[in-house]
Design goal:
Layout: E1 2-9, E2 15-27, E3 30-41, H1 42-47, H2 50-59, H3 63-71, E4 74-80, H4 82-93, H5 96-104, H6 110-126, H7 131-140, H8 152-178, E5 187-196, E6 221-229, E7 234-241, H9 246-260, E8 267-270, H10 277-285, E9 289-294, H11 301-308, E10 314-317, E11 320-325, E12 332-337, H12 339-362, H13 365-370, E13 378-379, E14 385-386, H14 388-393, E15 400-405, H15 411-419, H16 422-434, H17 445-472, H18 478-486, E16 489-494, E17 498-503, H19 511-517, E18 525-530, H20 534-538
């Protein structure tokens, strides 16, 4: 819109000028001007103070003018705003708002506990820290009126509430995400990781020392297992004592889900760390189908040659070739081969060979007793020498992995489903890095479990947003967009007589998060209040 002066000839022959507000409109391919408002005669503006009166009145309704005036005023604070709007929409879409409302409806502080739980989940995505620091962040660094009355006690009560109902929540999330009751076949992937513990929970039985995947054997830990659908949606979070092996945790989860969900036909996908003959026998006993990674070195020389030869391999895609081999044992073996990975491993072994030769020339026999990781490639009869034949034998494993399945799936699908396990590994990286699940300081076991489950819910929101963004723009970067949304702040400015809260402008690509989640962008002016004067307040 813009201003325009229109000249009109009266019946007496005089020319009068009128000030108009007009806008351009395209009608049938041609641009036409439409009068939005007739402000009045210009001669009256020139000869009276009408313009000043009019400007003062318009100024009351002009948002841009208000902002310009307020910019000269005192800035009281700038708080998180846009990202909470996006995460709340995801929270609602995933059914978590309804879920917690339903379980908390009879609680005395239902609203505060529900918002406290949501606040902890949001905190792990924006500013992961302890519950004590989260309480301060919720109250002082985020613009969300629903959080005004949340205290630290509500966060701790929220954790206790989660620990009591974790099993119920997971059951509903699992059923909602996988819809097992209406499908004849589905896939569940499972893997574990260790989470280190820094607190003083000496009496929490779940805290134990065991094999640390974070290489911190000096610390107690818990084992966290993630259940995920074939589409990469996390649907369950199982927590075990820190000394639980992958072999034990896997079969415990299978038995628990078999009983909890009364599932029928389901295919389990797990890494080779989960595989033992007792576990395979148990899966068969429970009538469960599976796709399991197996250790290639467990086979004798004759079977390895049959499995690992490149004969009869056929391409699934450029980086994946497969073949099917049936040995005397039950089940089908699917052999997978990645030529790009094979080249990479060949180069690594070439450098390893040079490294070994250099070490042989410089090291004595005593040093080899300690550094036993290299011993299988070295001969100690007489002079220390490199065993070239054993190094060459390693080439048969380059770029290959072997799967065991009792399913009727096509060998192509078996290979692709197993490769989907990388999504769980990405989840663990998120939990340990972005969400900073560790370190944990709680000393009560129930709160340790609830703390990890809060991180799991944050992970669910993050993956949901990632998938929604990819649906509207495949090349979009989740991190770039999420950081842009975090830059949308609520800012409060005050003068003696007025107070305004407005949102900052959308940074580059922030709009994609609103589009992906179907969320309406918040208005520029969030709140505007005309404050009472000091005199009137005293009166």
């Amino acid at each position: 819109m813009f201003a325009r002066i229109k000249k009109v000839k009266t019946s007496s022959g005089k020319i009068r000028e009128y000030l108009l507000i007009v806008e351009n409109k395209r009608v049938q391919g041609k641009v036409r001007q439409r009068i939005v408002a007739n402000i009045g005669r210009l001669d009256l503006f020139r000869n009276t103070n009408i313009a000043d009166v009019l400007m003062d009145k318009i100024k009351e309704y002009a948002k841009a003018s208000k902002l310009m005036d307020m910019a000269k005023s005192k800035c009281e604070w700038s708080k998180e705003y846009g990202v909470v709007i996006i995460l709340r929409k995801l929270w609602e879409d995933l059914g978590l708002e309804e879920l917690f409302s339903r379980y908390l409806k009879k609680h005395k502080y239902s609203s505060r506990l529900k918002e406290g739980i949501f606040g902890m989940v949001v905190s792990r995505l924006i500013m992961p820290t302890s519950e004590n620091a989260t309480s301060s962040w919720v109250n002082h660094d985020v613009y969300e009126p629903l959080w005004d009355k949340i205290g630290l006690q509500h966060l701790y009560r929220g954790l206790d509430f989660i620990s009591r109902h974790k099993s119920d929540f997971e059951k509903e999330l699992f059923s909602k995400a996988t819809d097992l009751f209406s499908q004849e076949l589905d896939i569940v992937m499972f893997d574990t990781t260790s989470i280190k513990y820094w607190g003083e929970g000496e009496h929490a039985g779940i805290l134990q020392r065991g094999y640390s995947k974070e290489k911190r054997g000096d610390l107690k830990q818990v084992i966290v297992g993630i259940l995920m659908t074939k589409d990469g949606i996390p649907v369950g979070c199982e927590i075990f004592p820190g000394n639980t092996s992958d072999l034990k945790s896997f079969i415990q989860v299978v038995e628990k889900l078999k009983e909890r969900y009364k599932i029928g036909k389901l295919i389990w996908v797990a890494d080779r760390g989960m595989v033992s003959q007792p576990n395979i026998d148990k899966l068969n006993e429970l009538n469960q189908e599976y796709i399991l990674g197996v250790r290639m070195r467990q086979f004798n020389k004759e079977k390895r040659q049959e499995l690992l030869s490149l004969n009869k391999m056929w391409p699934v895609r450029d980086d994946l070739y497969v073949k099917e081999v049936k040995l005397k044992e039950k089940g089908r073996y699917i052999v997978c081969y990645n030529p790009k990975e094979a080249e990479h491993e060949f180069e690594k072994r070439r450098f390893f060979k040079l490294h070994l030769r250099n070490k042989i020339n410089k090291s004595g026999t005593k040093e080899w007793i300690i550094k036993n990781g290299y011993k299988k490639y070295v001969d100690f009869e007489g002079d220390i020498t490199l065993n070239e034949e054993k190094l060459r034998d390693e080439s048969q494993y380059d770029g290959k992995w072997v799967l065991l399945t009792n399913s009727s799936l096509h060998s192509r699908d078996v290979a692709l489903y197993y490769k989907g396990l990388w999504q769980i590994e990405a989840c663990f990286r998120d939990m340990k890095q972005d969400l900073e699940t560790s370190p944990i300081y709680h000393y009560k076991e129930r709160r340790i479990i609830a703390h990890i489950f809060v991180s799991f819910l944050s992970l669910l929101l993050k993956i949901s947003l990632k998938k929604k963004i990819k649906q509207i723009e495949k090349s979009a970067s989740y991190t770039e967009i999420f950081n842009a949304v975090k830059d949308i702040k609520a800012v409060k400015l005050t003068e003696d007589s007025q107070e305004i809260i407005f949102r900052t402008e959308f940074p580059h690509k922030a709009h994609l998060a609103f589009k992906a989640t179907g969320t309406a962008p918040p208005p520029h002016i969030i709140s505007y209040k005309q404050r009472q004067s000091v005199v009137s307040r005293q009166g």
